[in-house]
Each structure stands twice: as structure tokens, then as C-alpha cells.
Design brief:
Blueprint: E1 6-9, H1 13-24, E2 32-35, H2 43-48, E3 53-55, H3 58-62, E4 66-69, H4 76-83, E5 92-95, H5 102-106, E6 112-117, E7 128-133, H6 139-149, E8 154-157, H7 160-170, H8 173-190, H9 197-218, H10 222-229, H11 235-275
Parallel strand pairs: 1-2, 1-4, 2-3, 4-5, 5-6, 7-8
Antiparallel strand pairs: 6-7
Bound molecules: NADP nicotinamide-adenine-dinucleotide phosphate.
């Protein structure tokens, strides 16, 4: 039997986004094997794409040429233990775990490993996927991975040690942006009548989208945007002063705390993988 192209292990939020993304962008159904612990979770996939192999057998997905591990970081070790004898010297293993260094994976699989940090935004073909490869990934597999992800948004290849900081801006980013704007919206709602709530939300979303589009079109920096809107001694300038004072320490703490959490989780993932060696 001919080896299938892509295996995806774990059909959760990200596994689903990748499986559906590859298929939406022209991957043949016969080229994909998706496995998930609860097989019934993939009913939507099978209904939309009859012919896709959807199975509870992780080794079926692990027998493909490019194998994407899309389970939670602390579930990676268990899956690796299950599939390690199925992986071959030509397998290209791709882990999307937010935490866990490639070196840890090499304890169990001494071959080509790439890391991809996807973003939910890829569901609408937006956002950046972050990519890193170990030294065993061939030129051909690098090209394959990068070309396969490009239809689902932008990509950037980075040294592995930079992933944890970049991912705060790409994969955590939508949640951070939502949290930030939620507080801004709530403050506006407090001083407006209840019936203005919906319109306020619409005005905020349009302002956010418009600001991004404006900056992209004019190649403006954040500083230039502030200078363009905030007149000396005016209302905007006052608001920007308050934001600067409050947010500088908040974002500094956020960056450090998220990196620390990532290091801690990476240590636990490595220890768990060591166990299955
Ligand atoms: N969410 C994001 O925006 C995001 C962004 C970047 C990276 N990531 C990374 O992506 C990975 C997956 O995240 P997620 O948000 O997609 O998680 P998720 O929604 O919890 O999905 C995990 C999936 O893995 C399945 N699974 C667990 N153990 C399994 C096993 N032994 N065999 C087969 N399937 C198994 C689960 O199936 P059951 O439900 O049947 O148990 C579930 O469908 C994580 O490592 C995370 O760090 C996530």
C-alpha cells in the first residue's frame, strides 16, 4: 500500500483547523489520515470529506510521510510511546505543542522533527504560523511544510528559542487582544446607557480593523499613528498617557510570565518523554 502524505494525531481545536485547512486548500482526501481518541469527534470531517481516513488508531496516522502531533503538550509523551515503533527513518514528525523542545522529542525519535505553532486565525487563512526545524529535516521536507502551510496564512521560520516569545503575538495573540479590548469596552459600557452596548462593540471592532488596515496601507509605525491622532494637550494625548503608564509594566510582566510558564511546561514535557524512551 502506498504511504499516505499527512497524518494528524489529535482532532481538537488545532488538529481540526489543520485537517480542514489542508483539505480546503486541495489536499486529496485519500492523502490524509486523522486519528483521535474519541473517533466520534471526527463525524463532521467524515461528513464533509467522505473518503478521509478517520480512526482511533494513532499508528495509522503515524505511518504517513508527515505526521502532525496535535494533542496537548502533556499528552505528547503518551502518543509518542504509542507510535514510536511505527515511525521510520524517513518520517517527518511535526509537533504543534506550544511547549516542548525538539531535543526532547529526539529522545524517542531520532529523525526529522519540525515545530509549528499555528494560530486559530488560520481557520480564515489569516495570521502567522511559526516554524522551526531540527537539523535532520531535509530541504525537501522544509519546503513541503512551508508550502503546505502558506495557503492557511503567513509563515515565518524562526530559531526554536524564539518561538515562545513570538507565539505570544501569534497563537496567544487573539486571546490577549480580546482580553485587552474587553476591558476597554467594559469601561465604555459603564458610562453609556445599556442600549448603546451593541453599537459600541461594532464601533470598536471597526476601529480595530480600520486601524490595522490603515497602518498596513501607509506602512505607519505605532508611534506615528499616535502622533497623527493625538493633538498636543488634547483628549487623545491624555488617554495615551494613561495607557503608557498602566500598560508598560503589564506587558513586561506578561512576556516574562508567559515565557516562564513555557519553560516550566517544556521541562515537564521533556521529563514525560524521557519516561517513554
Ligand atoms: N489552541 C490554540 O490556539 C493553539 C495554538 C498553538 C498551538 N497549540 C498547541 O496545539 C496542541 C493542541 O491544542 P488544542 O487546542 O487543539 O487541544 P485540544 O482541543 O484539547 O485537542 C486535543 C485533541 O487531542 C486528542 N487526544 C488526546 N490524547 C490523545 C491520544 N492519546 N490519542 C489520540 N488523540 C488524543 C483529544 O481527543 P479527545 O477529545 O477525544 O480526548 C483532542 O481532540 C497543544 O499542544 C497546544 O499547545 C494550540
Amino acid at each position: 500500500m502506498q504511504q499516505k502524505e499527512i497524518g494528524i494525531i489529535g482532532y481538537g481545536s488545532m488538529g481540526k483547523m489543520l485537517a480542514q485547512g489542508f483539505l480546503r486548500h486541495g489536499l486529496a482526501v485519500e492523502s490524509l489520515v486523522v486519528s483521535n481518541r474519541h473517533v466520534e469527534k471526527m463525524a463532521d470531517l467524515v461528513a464533509s470529506y467522505p473518503g478521509v481516513t478517520a480512526t482511533a488508531d494513532n499508528c495509522g496516522a503515524a505511518a504517513c510521510a508527515h505526521v502532525f502531533l496535535c494533542v496537548e503538550p502533556m499528552q505528547m509523551a503518551g502518543v509518542l510511546g504509542e507510535i514510536k515503533d511505527t515511525l521510520t527513518e524517513t518520517t517527518h514528525l511535526v509537533t504543534i505543542g506550544g511547549a516542548g523542545d525538539m531535543e526532547a522529542y529526539s529522545q524517542v525519535f531520532d529523525g526529522a522533527v519540525s515545530r509549528v505553532i499555528p494560530t486559530l486565525l488560520a481557520e480564515i487563512d489569516r495570521g502567522y504560523a511559526l516554524i522551526s526545524h531540527n537539523e535532520k529535516v531535509s530541504e525537501e521536507n522544509r519546503d513541503w511544510l512551508e508550502k503546505s502551510l502558506v495557503p492557511m496564512g503567513k509563515i515565518v521560520v524562526l530559531p526554536e528559542e524564539q518561538l515562545k516569545t513570538f507565539m505570544q503575538f501569534t497563537s496567544c495573540g487573539p486571546a490577549f487582544i480580546a482580553a485587552l479590548f474587553e476591558y476597554w469596552l467594559a469601561a465604555g459600557e459603564q458610562v453609556l446607557p445599556k442600549e448603546a452596548k451593541e453599537v459600541l462593540f461594532a464601533t470598536l471592532l471597526e476601529t480595530v480593523g480600520g486601524t490595522v488596515a490603515f497602518m498596513e496601507k501607509t506602512q505607519m509605525s505605532f508611534g506615528e499613528m499616535i502622533a497623527r491622532v493625538a493633538t498636543k494637550g488634547g483628549i487623545t494625548e491624555r488617554g495615551v498617557q494613561i495607557l503608557e503608564a498602566g500598560l508598560a509594566p503589564v506587558f513586561s510582566e506578561l512576556t516574562i510570565a508567559c515565557n516562564d510558564r513555557n519553560d516550566m511546561a517544556a521541562g515537564k514535557v521533556a521529563a514525560a518523554i524521557q519516561e517513554v524512551r
